[in-house]
Design a protein that fits this description.
Order of helices and strands: HHEHEEHEHEHEEEHEHEHHHHHH
Number of domains: 2
Number of helices: 14
Distance between the termini: 26 Å
Length: about 425
């Protein structure tokens, strides 16, 4: 039997039982659509995270106190609750004298309740030095940023994140020149950041209070060291060269002669992007693997239905063999039916998945624009969907097709 004739026969057979064919495809449709949707969500989330990291500053390098215990991306000691006081103002002053460095800013962080009138919120706060806003590419939509004079004088002023400003003041009252309290210390609001999002260390910039570092150190935290130093490398220099110069300066400042005794860790923006890219890719594959379970369920359903079809068409199989059809012809016919079912289910599943992804994008960008959701529909998911549906048709249709091909023509003709 020619393949073309086998396709026509298989198509007529599937069309004869439309409802059963549709119900049989349903498992494959749901499975493929699930894979498409989850891969698209994973890619969108990855794009959002990487865009936010790329937006926190060009040529960004972060110096963290405490060397990692093991591995390039192992957490430093400071992130495990161990207090390390190695980063101080002298390090920033020395780093700023390096030609390959455009700026360096120290940071301290804490968490407290900020209060205005009857409104309050528990948020993170950051004490920063003068280069912080320029290095982090932060701007304000109302008011002004903290100036170098404000920070050196230790003025009790703050810049708020946009979501926090709305929480405390609503949408009708301007926060500028209003007074808020943080740990029973009064601060005057001088500005509101133009955008929120996630910053280094997962800091929510939308719900953030930024103040002069001296105030945060002396009055809120009672420390003299920095939690980290953010460095912006000069665009004329290679990032690896800048990283080497930072390492050299800090070792000299801290009296370190043995590289294995470093009391700091340096992370470049490329390191962070690489790590986040790997994490989000693994999570996307993990989600797709979970969704693929429904493909297995759908494939088993197709195998079951095909076995029933073989039993129902036993006399037809016997008749075909009686007029000259070979085992290969019978195998080919039922295998083509199985592949057509799964392939059609795959196409419908891709269309359904694309529709859901488009609808989700419309809803999120219309009603939740602050999320910054991006549309992502990776072509790899379409290729994967078509390939998996075809393979599933062969894998789950082979056994029923072989059962049909092995039937004895005489016994098949006698079957009732």
């Amino acid at each position: 039997m020619l393949v073309r004739d086998a396709f026509k026969t298989a198509t007529r057979s599937l069309a004869h039982g439309k409802m059963r064919s549709i119900l049989t495809m349903l498992g494959i449709v749901i499975g493929i659509a699930s894979v498409i949707i989850l891969m698209s969500i994973g890619r969108s989330a990855q794009d959002i995270i990487l865009n936010q990291v790329q937006g926190i500053g060009s040529n960004l390098i972060i110096v963290i106190p405490g060397a990692p215990a093991n591995g390039k991306f192992a957490p430093p000691a400071s992130s495990q609750g161990i207090i390390i006081t190695s980063l101080v103002q002298r390090d920033i002053d020395t780093l700023k004298r390096e030609p390959s460095i455009s700026g360096a800013a120290g940071e301290v962080r804490g968490q407290a309740e900020v209060v205005y009138g009857n409104n309050s919120a528990t948020v993170g706060y950051q004490g920063v030095t003068s280069d912080f806003f320029s290095i982090r590419n932060l701007d304000v939509k109302v008011g002004q940023r903290l100036s170098a004079g404000d920070i050196s004088s230790g003025n009790h002023i703050v810049v708020l994140g946009p979501e926090l400003a709305e929480t405390l003041f609503g949408t009708t009252v301007s926060p500028v020149n209003k007074t808020v309290r943080l740990k029973d210390v009064s601060f005057r609001v001088v500005g509101v950041l133009s955008k929120g999002g996630s910053g280094p260390f997962g800091v929510d910039q939308g719900n953030l209070v930024i103040m002069p570092i001296s105030v945060a150190q002396k009055q809120l935290l009672g420390i003299t060291y920095f939690n980290d130093i953010i460095v912006e490398g000069d665009a004329a220099y290679d990032v690896d060269f800048v990283k080497a110069r930072i390492t050299s300066v800090l070792r000299q400042n801290h009296g370190i002669t043995n590289p294995n005794k470093d009391d700091f860790d340096i992370r470049t923006q490329e390191d962070v992007l690489s790590l986040l890219g790997n994490i989000t890719s693994v999570l996307t594959l993990f989600l797709a693997a979970i969704a693929s379970i429904s493909l297995i369920v759908g494939g088993i359903g197709i195998m079951n239905i095909m076995l029933v079809a073989v039993t129902e068409r036993t006399r037809e199989i016997g008749l075909r063999k009686a007029v000259g059809a070979t085992n290969g012809d019978i195998l080919q016919q039922f295998l083509i039916e199985s592949v057509l079912l799964t392939f059609a289910g795959g196409i419908i599943g891709i269309a359904l998945g694309a529709g859901v992804v488009g609808l989700a994008y419309f809803v999120l960008t219309t009603f939740f624009p602050s999320i910054g959701w991006v549309f992502a529909f990776p072509l790899s998911s379409v290729v994967l969907g078509l390939a998996v549906s075809g393979i599933a048709g062969i894998a789950f249709g082979l056994y029923p097709a072989r059962q049909a091909a092995r039937k004895n023509p005489i016994d098949a003709l006698r079957y009732e």
